[in-house]
């Protein structure tokens, strides 16, 4: 079986004002894999996601996104094939949830008045809205949606252009327990429905990882502490090392939890 690598980072450094934000990062993401990137605040998670999302360039090393190397390709072309979920979506007008999802087809914040959605796009939007469990709120205005509903709407929006890779930047930020569990359940369902889709989810809470997580990268001060399958990496030793704190990791029903090891 041919291996399809959607992301490749090789010896990546990111230096700003003489300070290393990332140093020597090497890993790859294949089709169907679901990666978690974890670390304390300031570990370099957001910087790495910016590289993977073709927003920034490395200072040294190479990053290939969908087989094309950053610095040798128009990054606007790459972004059209990536689904980026940012809970800080800068929408200011009271669009309905359905309208927000449809803006994913044009890659704009507001609807493009010169590009009307096709019948196929409308049908795809309805399928995604249903898959993410927000069909009952499709007509609700964005300001009236709960934080959890907004998160699921933004995931549906990111999937509108049929991306091969989904990037999730702390999608459970600010969610209460129920909303978090609904979001993670929706991600598990989504991954089952689209088996070739790959994803990278950034967080610093293991409780925010879906059970369908397959791989993990632990960062500390911009360097990789551990990288590999979730079973290998998300253990007490590597996580304690990454967070510089004695942590006990347990897993039950496919989900991880963390607490101080006494």
Task: Please tell me about this protein's structure.
InterPro entries: AAA+_ATPase, ABC_transporter-like_ATP-bd, P-loop_NTPase. Helices cover 30% and strands 29% of the residues. The longest helix has 17 residues, at 177-193. It has a 6-stranded mixed sheet with strand order 6-7-8-3-9-10, sandwiched between helices. Strands 2-1-4-5 form a 4-stranded antiparallel sheet, covered by helices on one side. It is of the alpha/beta class and 262 residues long. α3 (97-106) runs parallel beside α5 and α5 (147-159) runs parallel beside α6. It contains 8 helices and 12 strands. The chain has helices at 45-52, 75-79, 97-106, 119-131, 147-159, 177-193, 230-233, 236-243, and strands at residues 5-16, 19-30, 34-38, 60-65, 68-69, 82-85, 165-169, 198-203, 215-220, 223-229, 247-252, 255-260.
Helix-strand blueprint:
Elements: E1 5-16, E2 19-30, E3 34-38, H1 45-52, E4 60-65, E5 68-69, H2 75-79, E6 82-85, H3 97-106, H4 119-131, H5 147-159, E7 165-169, H6 177-193, E8 198-203, E9 215-220, E10 223-229, H7 230-233, H8 236-243, E11 247-252, E12 255-260
Parallel strand pairs: 3-8, 3-9, 6-7, 7-8
Antiparallel strand pairs: 1-2, 1-4, 4-5, 9-10, 11-12
Helix pairs in contact: 3-4, 3-5, 4-5, 5-6
Organism: Kitasatospora terrestris
Keywords: ATP-binding, Nucleotide-binding, Translocase, Transport
GO molecular function: ATP binding
